[in-house]
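Input.
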Amino acid sequence: MNGILMNYSTALIIISLGALLASIITRHSIWRWLIVAVVILLSLIIPVVDSNIWLWINGAAGELSIVSMILLSAFILRKMAVRDLILPSTRIHLYIFILLAGILLYPATLGLMQFDPYALGYSFELSMLLLSISILYWIFKQQQMAVILLITVAVREAGILNSLNTWDYLIDPLLWLFSPVLLVLLMLEKRRAAAS
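Output.
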């Protein structure tokens, strides 16, 4: 299962890069799909240090979190089919949530704090906390955010990823590193839309 999910993660990254490139080059849907297909093909055949780009990204990114996979799928759908799977307001809440979770988690992982929040992820308590937060989001009309958290908890309880830690289902280093950039880009996009 681990190899399948790593390949799925890598496929989402490569398709996202292709979708981004296609959205920059053309507005025509057919041409976008063709560009994505070419990017996928090139990622499989262009050699990189006795390997190919696909395997290099697979090794570098590894298994992405469920939230990363949802966000990448939403990005691909938005760029290729011009449909928003996740509302901008939900993405803002999600990026802030991920940014705060990473600020709590990663310094402790590097040994910069005495408290280890990473250990909380091995028990059911963190899942219960996420369920509680998702119910609060639902009450405050952030249903999409609640659904994303519920999917994360359900996948964690099913043990689909390789890890036993709930944090690994919720956040990964790539998502945490990109979340401030994505948050700024989304804010600029909202400001541009409000101005026009």
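Residues 70 and 148 are 8 Å apart (CA to CA).
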